[in-house]
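debug: dumping io for the single-chain case to check the tokenizer round-trip. Nothing else runs in this session.
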Amino acid sequence: MLIPRRLTEYLKELTNYFPAISLTGPRQAGKTTLLKQLYSDYTYLSLEDIELRAEAEAEPRDFLKKYNDKIIFDEAQRFPQLFSYLQQVIDDDRRNTGRFILSGSQNFLLRKNITQSLAGRVGIAKLMPLDNHELKQVDLLPDNFELACLLGGYPGKIDMGLKGRSFYRSYLSSYIERDVAELISVSNLTVFQRFLRVCATMAGRIINVDKLSRQVGVSPSSISSWLGILEQSYIIFRLPPFFRNLGKRLTKTPKLYFYDTGLLCYLLNLYDVEDIQRSGFKGEIFENFIIADAFKSLHHQGVEPHFYFYRDKSQAEVDLIYERGNLARLWEIKATHTFRPRLIESLEKQAAIWDRPTETTLIYTGDDEHLVRKTHLKSWYNQEWAI
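debug: decoded output
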């Protein structure tokens, strides 16, 4: 089944304005499938192909004379010299838009090359694993949140009906061998896998580099570098703390989340609903699931997510914050099926001292939806992130 992607509209918009488009995102997010579908009249070239790359490296100018319009360069980072040559071709005619599509899974190298040679000439888009809206549109989103978390959002896994254990084992092997191995020493690859699993135990929690260092057995500087690798390859993202002086000293360290909760559950050795319920990680997984969906949804609408969390020295906390204009939206996220007034007490207390109008929402696992005092009670299944 070909699942429609929301990013399509944003890509069309970029194609009308920029000579080149860059599409990044994690492996298996569906980038190649989307590009071939949307740009069906373009020539598709994968620079993973050794013979094609050899042709490009031997005579780059002749190569671009041959392929100079409506071209998809997949795994473009495999040929770094391509970017400086593209700069010359584009600058010869800046009015011609949508000429080149650049894609790849090694996002650090792709972005580095774009920044060095094509800044201002490239429209940037990010394709993440499927968000809940996309899954709902094709009736693939389970109405049980544990099943939805286990399902994850990688199109290949969902389309082929693969079990999480089989898919993610292969996924991690490919990711570490093809992406991570290029960035860290081979002797550290096994340790990196342990690092990944320790990160999973900290999902939804404030990042503690020193604690990670002790648990994994490598230096804090290595942990910081490895976190950067996971972030650049869209395995994890960091939710920064909210900074504004509300008369309290706020936490300054970000929280850690995974883009795909199917991968998160696999790393935690959780393979079915009962595993999640018994694990002690249920609350963190649900929070990760909701916040990851917020990030993915905005990326797929062409909006850079600027979400935050709030926590002060007394541990008063708001799980998710988004400010736009004069309105602050505050969300509390609870893995509970039954609403109780105490669930929104801290949320409404923080909203009362905010320095602008607020809209408060409790997202939970139940079905009932209504207004409680000033707070919207919202089922996770119906939450939309159209911001």
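debug: round-trip ok. DSSP finds 17 helices and 13 strands in the chain.
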